[in-house]
Design a protein that fits this description.
The complex is a heterodimer. Helices cover 42% and strands 30% of the residues of chain A. Chain A contains four helices and six strands. In chain B, strand 4 and strand 5 (127-135) form a beta hairpin. The chains are: A alpha/beta, B alpha+beta.
Chain lengths: 111, 148
């Protein structure tokens, strides 16, 4: 799993490339915790290059979304497609997480 | 029909070996990508559950995985000597509720049930045996070689 950070104004865009599974989820979880720990953060998680996610990945995403809500931060996912999107759907996450169609939409949504 | 079998230790680091074996088998038989992807997720979830929750000691254990390619199915049989546990008897997760109410417990098994065509559990000689079957509904990828 590779993480790439970009800042667009006060919005942090984190792109995840590769796999979020039981071995890589902790690192992403830590990164999300660090980012969303401070209040009023604006984060877009771009999953365009995500090839694989398992329940371990959903666990840390759910935790991050809860933390964001508690801290008054805004957190949006974008770039869902294919099998990754199917798992979000099967897990009932399409209605639960704020999801944008594109990175640009995501950045606008969290501002 | 082709079967391959491997044994892994109860360590998460071993899971890449299992994925590699599935991918090798899939490539050798030119299996369609979608069912293979589903099997990879299902196996990941099953094995992660066994390794993470299956044992009440700190000792090394072996988990046996047998992969079988049939005419229209890809099958995985997983056998472990952890605590007797029927994942199919577990309550399904609550997919409703607000963000703060939502839990991830049961999500892995939920994926297994939804992604696989058939799942069966039995306790054999005091070992947990889980059989995952995925229908290869798409035709196998044809050989596209040859003159145009």
């Amino acid at each position: 799993m590779d993480l790439r950070e970009d800042s667009v104004g006060d919005v942090l865009v984190l792109e995840v490339k590769g796999r979020i599974d039981s071995s890589t989820a902790p690192a992403l979880g830590d990164k999300l915790s660090d980012t969303l720990g401070a209040p009023a953060r604006r984060l877009v998680l771009d999953l365009r290059q995500l090839e694989y996610i398992s329940s371990a990945g959903f666990r840390i995403l759910l935790l991050a979304a809860k933390r964001a809500e508690e801290a008054g931060s805004r957190f949006v996912l974008c770039g869902l497609s294919g099998k990754v999107r199917q798992l979000f759907d099967l897990g009932g996450f399409l209605d639960l997480f704020p999801i944008s169609a594109s990175r640009e939409d995501g950045i606008a949504a969290v501002r | 029909m082709t079967s391959v079998e491997t044994t892994i230790a109860n360590r998460l680091a071993e899971l890449t070996r299992v994925s590699a074996l599935v991918n090798e088998l899939a490539a050798a038989h030119r299996l369609p990508a979608d069912p293979v992807a589903d099997m990879l997720v299902a196996l990941d979830e099953v094995l992660t559950n066994i390794i993470t929750h299956g044992y009440s000691d700190d000792r090394a254990h072996e988990i046996r995985i047998r992969l079988t390619v049939g005419a229209d199915t890809l099958e995985a049989e997983v056998e472990d000597d952890g605590r007797p546990f029927d994942p199919l008897a577990a309550a399904p997760p609550d997919l409703g509720g607000s963000l703060q109410e939502r839990r991830v417990g049961g999500l892995g098994i939920h994926f297994v049930r939804k992604l696989m065509s058939e799942v069966a559990y039995s306790l054999v000689d005091n070992k947990n045996r889980l059989v995952l079957k995925k229908g290869l509904t798409a035709r196998r990828e044809e050989d596209s070689g040859g003159p145009a």
